[in-house]
């Protein structure tokens, strides 16, 4: 069995950093993983681990821009169309990997997850190649600074989940930037982020954060009252379809990484199909090792 994890989320959410930690963790647990770069615009020096498979070996945004005259966004769309027309290339590239995790670092253009058919088609192709596929969606903790931005992140995650229809893990990244309870953001704490006391309402999004009554003293004061009906409709949607909850990820804490990775394993039922290995006869080398 082979496993592929799409690492998705908005630009700058920490996808490449998470992929590198994922790789480090797999290696430390004596498991094998391979990084796949699916961003045709990625800078060559942006990877801590060299990708085993790199879309840029097939096509890059620079190629699409210089040879076909596309802009950066049109170039990205062209690259994905080109990839889907050349699935035999990907098939050949993943051909050798067995019992491994492919960690697929995706681009940060959110429309790829919510609008375009590319990733669902890619997932179907990976499944055809015998891969169990899941996705991780990262949203950075700074989104909690502004509840409207946060709920737009929740809706994007929801839309991506519905678009891809595969096992899914939402992650609140960069939790090291969130203040401990004792620090007062008003006193100039790091980035003025929310304290951990309030985090639960964001990890399991409480739609009532959006519905705070006008004049309640929260940021709602700055919002035009005409949007209140829209907010109420969103609250209803999130309440009726509670699909999105976040796992906190603090890369400075190994237990936090372990927790996220165990959810990914669980979402894909990692190792469930493994056959017990045939015992083999001991040879001289084994006895030498024991001594
Ligand atoms: N404090 C903190 N910074 C982080 C963390 N993860 C990523 N960063 C920083 O956030 C910035 C973006 O990180 P990337 O991993 O490149 O994010 P990305 O989602 O791959 O970015 P794009 O590919 O451009 O969409 C970098 O400056 C990272 O150093 C984290 O857990 N904590």
Automatic annotation (TrEMBL):
GO MF, any single term: GTPase activity
Stretch list, region Disordered: 270-291
UniProt entry tagged with the keyword Cytoplasm: no
Record Pfam families: ATP_bind_1
UniProt-listed InterPro entries: Gpn, Gpn3, P-loop_NTPase
Keyword Transferase listed: no
Record keywords, A-Z: ATP-binding, GTP-binding, Hydrolase, Nucleotide-binding
Family, per entry: Belongs to the GPN-loop GTPase family.
PANTHER family (UniProt xref): GPN-LOOP GTPASE 3, XPA-BINDING PROTEIN 1-RELATED
Protein function: Small GTPase required for proper nuclear import of RNA polymerase II and III (RNAPII and RNAPIII). May act at an RNAP assembly step prior to nuclear import.
Quaternary structure and partners: Heterodimers with GPN1 or GPN2. Binds to RNA polymerase II (RNAPII).
Protein name (Swiss-Prot/TrEMBL): GPN-loop GTPase 3
